[in-house]
Amino acid sequence: MAQAKFKIWRGTQDQGEFQEYTAEVGEGMVVLDCIHQIQATQAPDLACRWNCKAGKCGSCSAEINGRPRLMCMTRMDDERYITPGETTIVEPMHTFPLIRDLVTNVSWNYKINKMIPRFQPRQADAPDGTWRMSQEEVDRVQEFRKCIECFLCQDTCHVLRDHGKTEGEMFGGPRFMIRVASLEMHPLDTADRLPLVKDSLNIGLCNITKCCTEVCPEHIHITDNGIIPLKERVVDRFYDPIMWLFHKIFGDKQKAEPARTRTALPVIHEPAAKS
Amino acid sequence: MADYETHEHDVLVIGAGGAGLRAAIEASATGVSVGLVCKSLLGKAHTVMAEGGVAAALANVDNRDSWQVHFADTMRGGQYVNNWRMAQLHAQEAPARVRELEAWGAVFDRTKDGRILQRNFGGHKYPRLAHVGDRTGLELIRTLQDHGIHQGMSVYMECTIIRLLKDGDRVCGALGYYREKGRFVIFKARAVVLATGGIGKAYKITSNSWEYTGDGHSLAYNAGAELIDMEFIQFHPTGMVWPPSVRGILVTEGVRGEGGCLRNSEGKRFMFGDIPDNYKPQTADNEEEGFLYVLAEKFNGKDSRRPPELLTRDHVARCINREVKEGRGSPHGGVFLELKSFAEWMKKRVSSFDADSHWKKKLPSMYHQFKELGNLDLTKQPMEVGPTTHYVMGGIRVDGDSQMSKIPGLFACGECAAGINGANRLGGNSLSDLLVLGKRAGEYAAHFAKDHGAGTIHDDQIDEATRWALSFIDEPKGDENPYKVQQDLQDMMQDLVGIVRKEEEMVRALDGLQQLWERARKVRAPINREYNPGWHTCMDLHNLLTVSEAVTKAAIERRESRGGQFRDDYPKKDSKNFGKKNTVVWKGADGRMEFRWEDLPPVPDDLKEIIKQQGEGKLPEELQ
Questions:
Q1: Cα–Cα distance between A4 and A8 in angstroms, integer?
Q2: Does a structural domain hold residue B248?
Q3: What's the whole-model pTM score?
């Protein structure tokens, strides 16, 4: 069994440091296995979230060597993320306030979710009191509904991460653009959430860098299939698009403080999968 | 008593998976105040892991289906030791609960004519599982979550309950701690609903997450409720076996429902060689018929019978176990599950059939899981699979209509409650169970809260529990590592009270449990109350030990093989002695676990008649 070295962030929002650990790495092990091993043998109070360990619950989000990843889906032998022989750095998501070690306070996301009016179906129209929808009609929203709420897209979104747009003129973030899209594009839904998307979730702040799409463990086309069509709907209804772009490019010069005081490592965007 | 954060609700729901959420939604809808406590973040509960679908006799794909057939299938799968009333209500009400989900925004896969699509699953006579690819649980929990948050309930996330509080006989609240700061919190409640899930973490190889430590079972037991059927544990036949770090992660039954074949190292489809008599009339005896069944609608094969891979989970798991034990396993101690045979069969019929995109569409998360964790492309290569601890049929004894336990005001639903599944649960019946019986638990808990005043919280109970909790960090009685004790427990339960059981091994397990209890009293964690998983493990360990003891005791007493209990020393079903009884354990006056047998409530004649019609002319007593 090979040994792997880790530097793991230990501490709270106010103070902390990277500490070094070593794990024995067996075949097929993922980063989360190493964290568990370190917990069981060296650091019993190392805080981390996890549940399913199969990429389905979205609890174990962290930044591994600077990349937002699910720890349970990052194999130690995957050279896209782990460099053999080098120390692996594991730290909490940067965008959210730190609770302890690898655990962040993601409650902001739950608040945003609650702002979105729930599904409101049209009157049932089939004889049995239900509805008829074809598979083709629901394919699009089913893609969005694959979201496991790992919040890695929120973590990597520079509007939230670097510009700290979590209050005031805040940005709802890619996760909730996708959630709105899943409702707005639902064949049965009748509610209108475009004013919310425009004025409260400020979809205009997204400038389509697609970082969110790159980190999505469910491979949802967040930008292309969700945010851009929503932007088009907002623009169609509310704006002359040319004037809107001009305003956004030249009008918004103030730079907000970063959300976190701890020095953030630069996010390295995921390279394409090896064929 | 110290001054702890206190919340007051009419109904407190402990556990926020499907059952807890559904109960909370129902209780809120009646206008009472509801608190919902989640051990993790909201929406992360184990329900997200449910893959295959939710069983409901909607009859969208095969119009011969009805609640009666679903009821009879559930009873047959449970080997007739189910609570008939729960099985009846479940089968009758499941279709309405599924339609309701659609009205709340769930987006199920569709039939050609635009209705909810249903798929085949083990033990279900007709295609019955409403599904969304292989991520049905996620769809279900997200739908309930996004509906529930607008119902006015208060949600307490990352909060673990360590005691139920009682006022005389009745329950009057609960005490817990927040993971974040380790602060205690008191909930006063007129009624409490337990929906805490299962006990999988008592075993080494399991599909369950860290949360599955039998909390609700143990809370109820310690408060004076009874646990029944604890010997019945479902070992899901297909968990991943390789690489070692993913051993136990679930491979959905949907793979077999969509045509997956189990083969041993000799390439033989061994399930064809072992079809139990009571399933022979409805099981295919040749490959052609089995494949035809998978796509019966497409090829007009409605009368074809299902392939033997879709026999009940207890049986398939044991067959896999046998193949491995007798030296016909795969390289890493499982058997092969392959999709190639079905794809080749399809290709002969539909030349345009594209296996690659077909499986990616039907089984997207399985594809992803094997690709990323196992370096394997399931559209091309066979998977290696073996049994994994998946579900406990046993649990808190509750009333079939109201889901109330023996303790006034204490309700239970979902996996932590017992009865509906008997000796073995059919795949897909747990998602429908948590919708149907979760709703009922919420409804009756709300009624109870309206009819009863608030109880009084007694300080001595709070003091005892908080002292106990803090002892592991402030005044540890020893230097045991909680993770190590947990691991030793898991190893022991896996080896001695696992899929194949023997009296002498289980008696050894009881001794082992005594030693583990001793060690569990001496565990310690670093002095730190903030998000300290070591400390949390110290406490969870006591729940795991309680449920492990209950499983072992009940399994020793049931000297026969039935469903989730397989005894090497009593390999046959013994209906004369055990066919009409449930095992019951409870906490005796001296604190020790007591055991007794209790007769099953008799099945009413009209339901007997249904079973007879669906069971090839036999009454339940002849089938037991």
A1: 12
A2: yes
A3: 0.93
